Amino acid sequence: MKSTSDSGLVRSLGLGFVVVVLISNVIGSGVYKKVAPMADQLGSSGWVLIAWVLGGLVTLLGALSNAEVAGLLADTGGEFAYFKKIYNRFVSFMYGWANFSVIQTGAIAALSYVFAQSLLSVVDLPDTLVSMQDFSLGGVFYPFQDFTTKLVAIVLILTLTIYNTKSIKSSANLNRIILWLVVTGLSIIVIAGITSGKAEFAQSFDFSTPVDKPITISAIFTAMLAAFWAYQGWPSVGFLGGEIKEPHKNLPKGIIIGTFTIIGIYLIVNVTYLAILSIDQLNAVHAAGNQIAAIEAIRMIWGRGGVIFISVLILITTLGCTHATIYGSARPYYAMAKEGLFFKSMATLNSSHVPGNVMWFQCIWACLLVFSGTFDQLTDMAVFAVFIFFGASAVGVFILRKKMPNAHRPYKAWGYPVVPALFILFCIGLLLNTIITQPREAFMGMILMLSGVPLYLYFKKKNKVE
Q1: 3-state class (DSSP) for residue 255
Q2: In this structure, what DSSP letter does residue 11 have?
Q3: In the beta sheet, which residues pair with residue 10?
Q4: How far is residue 146's CA from residue 63's CA, in Å, rounded to a whole number?
């Protein structure tokens, strides 16, 4: 017998659906590429695997904390609405602006970057503006570095934006299709590695480190910053709170099962990468800037044919992820404009009933972000920014327990108050470590987010927002 939530939504989704949604929204481009910067940071394959496990466990703590907020406020919408209830309209706006300025647009730029790198592994396009590669803006931005890659990424963003401004139709099974494609590709990598005879699995568990790269807490935090890009996407499961059967049981179970499944997949795949490619080879992949670890691993086993296969797979998966991100990210900015907290022209729909102005504004900014840095710089900047709000959401668990002590909670954070508190402390530690070790990414992320303060005051005064 089907039950109904307070919002009138039918609770028809079981545990299996929660697990599938979580996994399909998490596994993406990071699992193909992030092992290289992690290897460069730690200098040890064994410690790279440790960083993947720790990143997954921290993700689990955050997801379990976020699920209580999502379950309690599920009928009001996403984090933009949650923060209005937990804090105030200003914090809510800053979250929306951070998504526009760095988090979601940074994700669009980074995903399109991986798409371009995969395409260039198959199609040999000439380097462009090579003479200007060393040109920089203040020694910080190198807009013409890997210029061909950036041009391809921008063409993808423009193409998908045009498509999304002309149609509101999207495949309901997109996430599931992408998930199966990714799992198939990763399975092929693992099977190929195991059966090739070229993999040295003892190499994957080598904990020895170079003299000049001692393992420190700071180094682990920095490596985990890369891993967190691969774990991104878990908050999406909270939006299902009003449609899950027995959410107090199935939501936390789905989060735990899904997260441990992802950790297991990442460990198996990265053990294979590390068995095929040495730390020195992964360091070379990272130094090249325009290479992907998964492609180089398959190249070692199958040569050119394998490169084409895995590149096409990555092309398909990143194309789908970029499309979904472009399509979904624009809607909150449209909602902000309707509330008077964004430019008025962004609150209009075009003839296809799509917020076209928002789409193009998002497109222009994402293209500029492509020019601003490399894939790893873009993802580190986005992860730094998003963890500010992950921490704020976990703090919200404590605030809502005080504000709404008697409210019905479909799910209460497991391990409260220890689990949310640990996650908050980790968020603080990650942010501080990023400021110290990745000052460029942290500085740019903060500048982009803080640029929302004068904008909020402007919108509030102009549109007389309470």
Answers
A1: helix
A2: E
A3: 4
A4: 36
Q: What sign has the CA pseudo-torsion 220, 222, 226, 228?
A: positive
Identity at 221, one-letter amino acid code: F
Tell me the pLDDT tens digit for each residue of 233-265: 776 665 455 556 776 677 777 888 888 898 999
Q: How far apart are CA 192 and CA 158, in angstroms?
A: 36
Contact 186, 314 (CB under 8 A): no
- Upstream peptide bond of 417 is cis (omega within 30 degrees of 0): yes
CATH no., domain 3-463: 1.20.1740.10
- In the chain, the N- to C-terminal Cα span, in Å, equals 44
CA distances (Å), 138 to each of 50, 343, 378, 442, in order? 37, 31, 18, 17
**Span 159-209, pLDDT tens digits:** 988 887 876 554 445 556 777 777 888 888 888 888 888 888 889 999 988
**Sequence-separated (6 or more) residues with CB below 8 Å from residue 54:** 220, 224, 227
What percent of the residues of the chain are helix, what percent strand, and what percent coil, each to the nearest 5?
75, 0, 25
Residue count (the chain):
466
Instruction: Compute the radius of gyration of the chain from its Cα atoms.
Output: 22
Whole-angstrom distance, CA of residue 406 vs CA of residue 230:
37
Q: Where are the domains of the chain?
A: 3-463
Q: Do residues 213 and 46 lie in contact, with contact meaning Cβ atoms separated by under 8 Å? A: no
Residues 6+ apart with CB under 8 A from 414: 64, 252
User: Identity (one letter) of the amino acid at 24?
Assistant: S
Taking a C-beta distance cutoff of 8 angstroms, is the pair 251, 43 a contact? Answer: no
Q: Kindly report the pTM of this predicted structure.
A: 0.80
Q: Which two tokens stand for residue 330?
A: 């624009």
State phi, psi for 315 to the nearest 5 degrees: -55, -45
Is residue 250 within 8 A of residue 18, CB to CB? The reply is: yes
Residue found by looking up tokens 């040495």 in the block = 278
- Token pair of 300, please? 């070692």
